[in-house]
């Protein structure tokens, strides 16, 4: 089957700055030589990774609750969420993945007769084109909802946005669903939010973010435990992708197992690769030794309460303007708006 070329599709813009992945190779090396070894979680989200994550999300025995509860929250509050987004706005979804939940919000905007330019940002060209095809079928141009794709990372998006694309309206809403902000620790999450704020200084900016606040450790373990083969396959694909980026088989699957646990101090589930034996990783210009039983962090999923969301937002120059939650108040969608500047302190 012929692979799709994003450049051939008018509804999709390739904003990747470095097709050769040199930045990602550097990130892999830097993470492995750090005191606490880590691989960039972006490695998990190639075409294969996205398909494997969908398998996790749809396997009943795993009970991937964040997606189900977030969908319930959106269905319950879609009209109110849509009312916070003005007509003739630009709506940009960060890490769009499966856009079924997004379609609920776009439908609510359509019912309110709003003209919206929706942009889906994702790393997977196959997944992005598939999602766009479904959305454009549901929302033709005559609907007032224009659907476009942006192929790239968060960093690529920030660079692209600084170029002030002509198609962006004066109001911008960033939609960040799926507890994706929880892949960062609180310091890094605040730093990324602050970067969004800084690069959009000339725009009226707000964010709508999905955050999981579950603290039921048995439920969390059932959702993320790599003892589930579907979850293990998803994680191991990250090592395959690392090999592709590095251009050589640095990681051999037989050398690695997967494990994970809920960190009660950090309030996050953390998934790791664990060396089955002493391993020597040969990287360009570096030799990394990983002892038997030593762990490399693959991905984290933070579980933040509203107070923690308030703190992360405040540190980035935002305030929580509105919250929508499920009936148990564990999962929330948070509307973040820029904190007003006090003229007397300028």
| Net shape | globular
Strand percentage, roughly? 25-35%
Determine the N-to-C terminus distance.
59 Å
Overall mean pLDDT stands at: 91
Largest sheet: 8 strands, mixed
In total, how many beta strands? 13
> What is the percent of helical residues?
25-40%
Rg: 20 Å
- Would you list the SSEs in sequence order as H and E? EHHHEHEHEHEHEHHEEEEEHEE
Low-confidence stretches: 1-9, 342-346
Helix segment tally: 10
Strands ordered across the widest β-sheet:
1-4-3-2-5-6-13-12
Structural class: alpha/beta
Walk me through this protein's architecture:
- With 346 residues, the protein is of the alpha/beta class.
- The chain has ten helices and 13 strands.
- The strands form three sheets. It has an eight-stranded mixed β-sheet, sandwiched between helices.
- Strand 12 (318-325) and strand 13 form a beta hairpin.
- The longest helix has 19 residues, at 65-83.
- The relative contact order is 0.16.
